[in-house]
């Protein structure tokens, strides 16, 4: 055989694809290549492992402690019945209707059992928090699918479609309630959800990488997480106020 | 590829975790966290980043438990996820460096070895005094996130090119080329002149 290239020797050094008898034979008969391989071996052997900080038995426990709060909601199984994803949108619509009616006609009227405004606001925050969490999960499900094979994302698309419907209501409501920051994040989220909902039903690694880049470029997931954390802490504060606990 | 401990015991625990048993997932975390940390540290070479990678990897695994094939080893699966998270972490670091000082980042990945004199002595004469280690460190600094990831996985973890491709979402050819470029950077840092070889 002709002299192996440096790349061939690198693969040979790592035994990539097993030992190559042709290269072995060539190295045995060619002094120059044999020297070149010995030099390569010496170079790569000099790359030794850095000392790794030791983690004791308790490491797993600590990791779990930090991880646990982030696992509050178990991810949905892939083939989730569509009704489960319709429910939030429908519930959001009815609650938002109540929320908006309450905001627009705050007093008077023969309302039989008016929901106190603070309790209504608190329900709204719970709904928004859950909505943000679900949206994040759907986007991550599509963007982080493993492997190089195209993935069928129809189930995630159906979820995204329903989340778009709920998102519109939340966005509208946030704007009317004088929450431009929340409305702006929901607006950005809606655009990405729309892209997923109306994109191709099977996505290859390139499409998933594109979505990941899109999510990274606008820090969308970060903003969604921050907003979720804000609404959840606001909701907790309200829960501690008498008369708002549900 | 280095195998993770406890893979035989994992089958039942994974099944329980998939059924929604959080305690079963806790057992998987406790069983594998240290191996995942070691992989993350080898790739990121930063303790804080490595801990973040451990968190992200288990979070991602939890969210994707439904996709885990029962016949596969959980240890290998979480290892692949962690490698991907570590690669993401390296890319994020690379972007931060680029936006902080685009010129320095460019020099670091492509520029000449400003700290290394040309005609530097050969590796076998540099073994003493930790010079080799310093030069290897410099080479690692000059590698892109992809090169560093692919090289760490090949050189330290013993993953095949195909496994590296799967872990980093690359085709085998891109994974292979990344390893080649990384090795060249190591050799340049050690003062090797790849031109001093017979023509293939």
Element layout with pairings:
The complex is a heterodimer of chains A (246) and B (200).
Chain A: H1 6-13, H2 21-29, H3 31-45, H4 59-67, H5 82-104, H6 117-143, E1 151-152, H7 154-176, H8 180-198, E2 202-203, H9 205-217, H10 220-239
Antiparallel strand pairs in A: 1-2
Chain B: H1 7-18, H2 22-44, H3 47-63, H4 74-100, H5 102-110, H6 131-142, H7 145-155, H8 161-168, H9 172-189
Helix pairs in contact in B: 1-2, 2-3, 2-4, 3-4, 4-5, 4-7, 4-8, 6-9, 7-8, 7-9, 8-9
Q: List unreliable stretches of 5+ residues of chain B.
A: 110-121, 124-129, 195-200
Order of helices and strands of chain A: HHHHHHEHHEHH
Task: Look up the CATH topology of the largest domain in chain B.
Answer: Rna Polymerase Sigma Factor, Chain: A
User: Major sheet of chain A: size, sense and barrel closure?
Assistant: 2 strands, antiparallel
User: How many individual domains of chain A?
Assistant: 2
In total, the number of domains of chain B comes to: 2
Which term fits the overall shape of chain B?
elongated
Name of the CATH architecture of the largest domain in chain B? Orthogonal Bundle
* Helix and strand element order of chain B: HHHHHHHHH
Largest sheet features of chain B = none
Radius of gyration of chain B: 19 Å
How far from one another are the termini of chain B?
31 Å
Radius of gyration of chain A: 28 Å
How many alpha or pi helices of chain A? Answer: 10
Task: Report the structural category of chain B.
Answer: mainly alpha
Summed over residues and divided by their number, the pLDDT of chain B gives a mean of 80
Largest interface: A-B, 53 and 59 residues
Q: What fraction, in percent, of the residue positions of chain A are helical?
A: 55-70%
Say what oligomer this is: heterodimer
